[in-house]
Structures are given as structure tokens and as C-alpha cells.
Amino acid sequence: MSIIKLHDKYFKQYISEEKIQTVVKKMAQEIGREYQNETPIFIGILNGCFMYMADFIREYPGNCEVSFVKLASYTGTSSTGAVKQLVGVNQDLEGRIVVILEDIIDTGNTLEEIYKIFSDKKVKQLKIATLFFKPDVFRKELPIDHIGMSIPDKFIVGYGLDYDNLGRNFGAIYQLTTKPKMKNIVLFGPPGVGKGTQAAILKAKYNLVHISTGDIFRDHIKRQTELGKIAQSFMDYGNFVPDNVTIDMLETEIEKNPDAHGFIFDGFPRTPTQAVALDKYLTDKGELLSGMVALEVPEETLVTRILERGKTSGRPDDQDEAKIRHRFHEYHTKTEVLKDFYSEQHKYFGINGVGLVTDITARLSEVIDNI
Ligand code: IMP
Ligand code: MG
Q1: C-alpha 106 to ligand 1 mean position (Å)
Q2: What's the CA-to-centroid distance between 100 and ligand 2, angstroms?
Q3: Whose Cα sits closest to atom 9 in ligand 1?
Q4: Which ligand places an atom closest to the C-alpha of 161?
Q5: Can you give the pTM of this predicted structure?
Q6: Which residue is closest in CA terms to ligand 1's atom 12?
Q7: For the domain 183-368, what is the CATH code?
Q8: Which residues line ligand 1 (CB under 6 A)?
Q9: Do 262 and 185 touch, CB atoms closer than 8 A?
Q10: Rounded mean pLDDT of 13-36?
């Protein structure tokens, strides 16, 4: 579960990709059984139908033809009432079974237009198969033959559906939600990349609370708390502290700052399990992770930097090249996958981390200002 931003609005996940796939598959099989010995023409209503159409057709068990019509009625998040035909029917449909694939039926204005368009085409049968249907706003006396899912009257995006042309590329369905109040950033990158330095600057600039899991664990270790003892047994060897320990600790730190404008997470999440936990935690609070901003620096430069830092930082994991290499190994095998995790959500922003501290801050700010 996570929140996405499209133009000025925020949307939270409402129907998962898996659920949609199950529904589409079931529709394709049901309709397939109906036309076992026929070759129907599936006509998709563009733009919204393209993902549904592609998945439906792949699951369709028999012979079929595919075509498209392009209609438009929405601007923003409400229907204009007037349906425009942008691409019409350009093939002979006489005597054919035509099945219209609609992504969503809302007021029914588009559906009415569809019935009009096909009324003089001498088709043998005209059937409507819509993936989503909003029964509370439907105002027409027109038949709908197949409905994937009925949903309440809420504006949705994703899986082909858009909000002013954005959001079509998400595999799941999202629903309008209130604007989150925080800016939450994951500052990301391998050990020694300069996360601590940049976090200190960004924290002041954006009035955010900086949570460095490494610093917190080191503080507990210094005070020899129970948590510190557990953390030490892992960290001294360059290993990760187990996820459940880290997640509990992080949530405790967030709760300590109820009035924060947002957080800079540094050293968290380090694994996909932690990322999922963070997403869920923030979504439950009506907040979102604004993005992951990653500092990118070549590894050999980093090893030299860390050894240099080890001369003054006093950190045992900074002084031994074998341990440093092991930290990189942990990073590559366990943490780097987060780049894919956030890229899939369109929330990964890579930044060149080589150069003057002020230049790097400027590059980071350019991203942070816009997420
Ligand atoms: P209708 O003409 O009011 O039934 O609306 C049908 C068209 O409006 C659909 O084909 C969509 O393109 C668009 N639409 C309706 N509801 C939504 C929604 O919740 N999200 C995105 N587009 C929608
Ligand atoms: Mg449509």
C-alpha cells in the first residue's frame, strides 16, 4: 500500500494488481465460454481500456479479432457530459458479434454514445464488458452484459485510467485521498557516500527530522541498552541488525516526533521487508514516502573515503578494509534491490554524489523541491 502524487492530487492504493488480474482472467474465461464456436470482435474504448484489453485478450481462450474506438468525455476528475468521438469504427461489422471492452462505466454517457455508434452497423450481437462499474452514478436504462467489479462513486486511476493523462501506467488501482502533511525522504546510497553530511544540511533547510538508524544504534550501543547489545553483535561485523528490531526502533523514533513536518530516513529501509513496513506505517498515518533520493558514487572512491574517515570517526567498521568490503557486499546483495522497489513506484531519484558538498546539496534540493 502506498500513496502516489499525480499533478496536484494524491491517490492511495485501492485495488491490487493481483486482484485486477484475477478479475480480468475470470471475465475472459466467462466470455470465452459464451462464444466457443464463434469469432467475436473485441472493440476497446480508448484510451482507458488499453491495459485491460491487453490482459483480457491474452487470457481469452478462443479465436477473436481486436479493434479500437477512441472516445473522450472526462476532463480532470469529473465527466463533462459531452462525449467526443476521436477515432471511429472503420471496418465492416455486419453479422458479427461485437463485444465492447470498457475500462469503466460511470454516468453512462459514454455507453449511450457507444450504443448510438453501433446501432446502424448491422451487428449480430452487441455486448458490453466493463472492468469497473459505478452503480451509484449510472443514470441510463442501458444493458451492461459483463461487469468485472462494481465500485463506489470515487474517482480512481491506474491500470489505464488517468487523472488528466497521468497515472495510466500503474498496475494497481488508486483512489483519491487527502493531501499528506509531511515530506518524507529516504536518503539512499552505499556506505561512505555522504548521506550523513547531506542529511544534516537538508534537515535544517526543509525543517525535517533526521533519523539515522546507524546513529541511533550507535547511541544505544554507547549506553549499553538492551537494544544496543543486540545491535552491537551485528554491527561490529558489518552485518545488518535484524528487520524486526530495526522496524520497532524506527517506529519508536517517529512517534517521538508527533509534530514533525517530515523525516529524512538515513540507513532505513535497508531491505525490501523494511521498505514494505515503512510504506504500510506511513499509509496508515495518511502520509506517504515522497521519494528515495540516492547519492551515486563509484565504489573505489568510497572505500578510500571511508578509510580516511575511520582515522577520526572512531567507528570500528570504518577502519578495516575487509569489513568495509563486507558492508559493500551486504549493500549489493540486500539493499541495492530497493532501487528497483522504488523505481517501480516511480519514486527513485538517482543523483551524482561526486563533487562539492554545496553542489550535491543543490542537486538533491532540485529533486526534493518537486516531490
Ligand atoms: P461515463 O461516460 O460517465 O460513463 O464515463 C466513462 C468514461 O469516463 C470512462 O471511459 C473513463 O474514461 C472516464 N472515467 C469515469 N470514471 C472514472 C474514474 O474514476 N477515473 C478515471 N476515469 C474515469
Ligand atoms: Mg474510457
Answers
A1: 5
A2: 11
A3: 104
A4: 1
A5: 0.68
A6: 48
A7: 3.40.50.300
A8: 48, 73-74, 79, 102-111, 155-157, 161
A9: yes
A10: 96
The CATH fold assigned to 3-177 is Rossmann fold (3.40.50)
Ligand 1 midpoint to CA 221 (Å) = 56
Cell 537494544, residue located: 227
User: pLDDT class for 267, splitting at 50, 70, 90?
Assistant: confident
Cell of 303: 572505500
- The dihedral through the CA atoms of 42, 43, 46, 48 has a sign that is negative
Q: How many helices (H) and strands (E) does the chain have?
A: 12, 15
Cα separation of 350 and 338, whole Å?
Answer: 12
First-last CA distance in the chain = 18
**Same CATH fold, 183-368 and 3-177?**
yes
pLDDT, tens digit (0-9, with 9 covering 90-100), for 101-127: 999 999 999 999 999 999 999 999 999
Q: Where are the domains of the chain?
A: 3-177, 183-368
Between CA 160 and CA 166 the distance in angstroms is 9
| Atom from ligand 1 closest to the CA of residue 106 | 4
